[in-house]
Amino acid sequence: MKAVILAGGEGTRLRPFTATEPKVMAPVANKPILEYVVQALVDNGINQIVIVVGYRRQRIMSYFGDGDDFDTDIEYVIQRKQPPSGGTAHALYQAKNKIDEEFLVLPGDNVISKETVADLLAEMEEYSLLITKSDIPSKYGVVTLKKGGKEIENLVEKPERSPSHLISTCICSFPPDIFDWIEQAMGDGYYDIPSVIQRILKEKSIKAIRTDETWIDAVYPWDLLDVNGAALTGINKNINGLIQENVIIKGDVKIGKGTRIRGGSFIEGPAVIGEGCDIGPNACILPSTSIDENTKIGPFTVIQNSVIMRGVHIGSHSNIENSVIGEGVVTGANFSTYSEDSRVEADDGLHEVENIGVMIAEDTEISSGVTVESGVVIGKGCQVKSGRTIRENLESDSKAV
């Protein structure tokens, strides 16, 4: 069986972290989101994968190559131009010439597990849709079921008032004639898979398959924290590198080769620290934190429930919590983030977010003694002068002097 992964979109609501790479390559627990999808398929014996790429496609293709490093065979098709609104069906259509039998379709921007895919494979029929429960269903496609609960009755995208707590994961099984349905929908100006499913439901049944296994979507920058926490669940303790005296490591912690944990530091899992890092001395890394490779964390710095991407340098005596720090960010000493319930501004308006710190995009430089208040988003390539308190978002390449 083949699987088609849709990975052509930018992920505009995840800006500024998608300014230079697609959403599917955003790192959580030090691996791109897309890698979790590929691995879940491979773990279920699916070793023929077609990835639909578009925005910044070279980042995906150079990372995954032909799939040999992931024990699978990967082919690519290109979605060269996305329709103006919702192009998932259009993206899938690009894989038409690669499909000649029943196949799976998966979004590339959700963290899923082996068990998630297994739930679909165990019960799937010709047309099947994997569904799950959500406490905030209006963010997704909401599913209602026919009497008996085995078939889809309707699928409504992001309703203001949700008729159900069941949502679509967008993980499906289809026969090759799905492309005929997509052609009809696109002919009428509809380019998304939910619109195609609504058409199919008028003539055919689509099986609803429930899962309670891992399925987490990162829609906004702050969602990366929940996705990261889920990805860290169940990691195996694996300590490499140089661990100096008087270091305490508690719980499930993974530390990469060439990393130095200096004396007096404390690390509590689940946490992952990549290769070539330099931590401490007397640093404190608390649960649900991922620190990517070639990162330096200065003395007496505390980090908790945060995503620290590749090549970051955090100065001494700093405090970072519930935050996302992008690749190559450099901060001076005494850098502090606040974390509390905040209204966070995104491309589509303001959002009430619980217990959120800050989000800083790549290659930003922050001098010593800077404090950033809760919910602030700082774009890529910004410069912040010493002693500033940042209370409002900074657009990319801004200077706060």
Q: Could you characterize the architecture of this molecule?
A:
With 401 residues, the chain is an alpha/beta fold. It has 2 domains: 2-217, Spore Coat Polysaccharide Biosynthesis Protein SpsA, Chain A, CATH 3.90.550.10; 232-400, UDP N-Acetylglucosamine Acyltransferase, domain 1 (3 Solenoid), CATH 2.160.10. It contains 7 helices and 40 strands. The strands form 10 sheets. Strands 14-17-20-23-26-29-34-37 form an 8-stranded parallel sheet. Strands 5-4-1-6-11-8-12 form a 7-stranded mixed sheet. A 5-stranded parallel sheet has the order 15-18-21-24-27, with no helix packed on it. Strand 9 (141-145) and strand 10 (152-157) form a beta hairpin. The longest helix has 10 residues, at 33-42.
Topology readout:
Elements: E1 2-7, E2 27-28, E3 31-32, H1 33-42, E4 48-53, H2 57-64, E5 73-78, H3 88-93, E6 103-107, E7 110-112, H4 114-123, E8 128-133, E9 141-145, E10 152-157, E11 166-174, H5 178-187, H6 193-201, E12 207-210, E13 215-217, H7 223-232, E14 238-239, E15 242-243, E16 248-250, E17 253-255, E18 260-261, E19 266-268, E20 271-273, E21 278-279, E22 284-285, E23 289-291, E24 296-297, E25 302-304, E26 307-308, E27 313-314, E28 319-321, E29 324-325, E30 330-331, E31 336-337, E32 340-346, E33 349-356, E34 359-360, E35 365-366, E36 371-372, E37 377-378, E38 383-384, E39 389-390, E40 399-400
Parallel strand pairs: 1-4, 1-6, 4-5, 8-12, 14-17, 15-18, 16-19, 17-20, 18-21, 19-22, 20-23, 21-24, 22-25, 23-26, 24-27, 25-28, 26-29, 29-34, 30-35, 31-36, 34-37, 35-38, 36-39, 38-40
Antiparallel strand pairs: 2-3, 6-11, 7-13, 8-11, 9-10, 32-33
Helix pairs in contact: 1-4
